[in-house]
Structures are given as C-alpha cells and as structure tokens.
Amino acid sequence: MRYQITGKQIDVGEALQSHVKSELGEVAEKYMQRPTDAQITFSRDAHEYICEATVHLSTGLTASAKGHATEIYAAFDAAREKMDKQLRRHKRRLKDHHRDRAEPVEFEAAGLYVLASEEDDDTGETHEGAPMIVAEMETKVPTLSVGEAVMQMELSDASLLVFRNEKHGGVNVVHRREDGNVGWIDPRNSK
C-alpha cells in the first residue's frame, strides 16, 4: 500500500510516519480489503490536532475518517478507530449480502461546480440572474448497486452520493436524512 502522509503547517516526523504506516496497515490487513493507497493529512485548529485519513480500496470504494484530539498521536488513533469501524461494517455487509465485487467499480467523469452563496457577494448573481460559478472541477460518478452506494456513502462519511445504478444505468442519489435514515432518489421510478 502506498502512503501519502502530510501536514498542513505541521512537521510530520519519521516516528509519526512509521506509527501511521504500521497502525493503518494493521487495520487494512485485518479486514483484507486490498487497499491501494492511503492519504493521511494532519492539521491544527487552535489547540486541537486534526487527522484526516482516506484509504482507497482496489474495488474502487473509498473509506474516510477524521479524528480530533489535543495530541497528534491521539488524533490519528481516533481516525484509525473510525476507519476500523467502517471497514468492519463494510466487511460484515459484504458477508451478509453474499456478494463480493469481482471487478473494480467503473467511474464516469462529470462536472462539479461550486456556486457563490449570497453571503459571499452583495448579490450572489450575475447580470442574467444566474448564480455565479466560483469553481469548476471534475469529479467521478461510480457505477454501483444501491447497497454498494449506501456503503460507499457511509465509508466516505458523506451526506450524499450521486451514482449510476448498475441495474438500469440511470443516475441515482442516496443521501442521509435528518431523521438518520438513508434516502434513495431514483428518477426512473417516478411514474
């Protein structure tokens, strides 16, 4: 597994890097998820250290975790525990569904736009009345089953995931509702 360990205005020493590699490698081996690479970023917010960890699995799924603590090692340990819990749940769901993806997830390129909010600007709109585009980026839309999409959303700790439904090829959305349940939007079944 390839590791990219960085610090935002923090010097990440050799001891911390070796600790991160051994602990995260142990978590990945424990659940045999065949990780390809991991990105770990340390930063500081006032008196607190923040550790953000992202592990890409060979199936195309991504697991993300974030930890906070007053010490840098404790922040990593909190993120590692969350990652361990996510990968354990993921493995349990794969066993429960008796389905293991043999081939990697297919991704399709899509445009991602960041629009200015009205608070960012006096009007937040251009002369034509359309919102002002602040940034244009590219994102990837995976082709997944609904169950895999829910797992991916939970693994990445996101509140929303846009995906292409592998059953019919249409674009679908799964999202975390305010009541804690997961919502699924399938425009194809609107009739």
TrEMBL record:
- Specify where it is mainly localized: cytoplasm
Q: Which residues are in the Sigma 54 modulation/S30EA ribosomal protein C-terminal domain?
A: 130-183
Kindly list the places in or outside the cell where this protein is found, as annotated in its UniProt entry: Cytoplasm
Domain of life from the UniProt record: Bacteria
User: InterPro entries in the record, alphabetically?
Assistant: HPF/YfiA_ribosome-assoc, HPF_long/plastid, RHF-like, RHF/RaiA, Ribosom_S30AE_C, Ribosom_S30AE_C_sf
Q: List keywords of the entry alphabetically.
A: Cytoplasm, Translation regulation
Question: Which Pfam family, any one of them, does this sequence belong to?
Answer: Ribosomal_S30AE
NCBIfam families associated with the record: yfiA
Q: How does it assemble?
A: Interacts with 100S ribosomes.
Q: What does this protein do?
A: Required for dimerization of active 70S ribosomes into 100S ribosomes in stationary phase; 100S ribosomes are translationally inactive and sometimes present during exponential growth.
Give the protein's recorded name.
Ribosome hibernation promoting factor
Natural source organism: Thioclava electrotropha
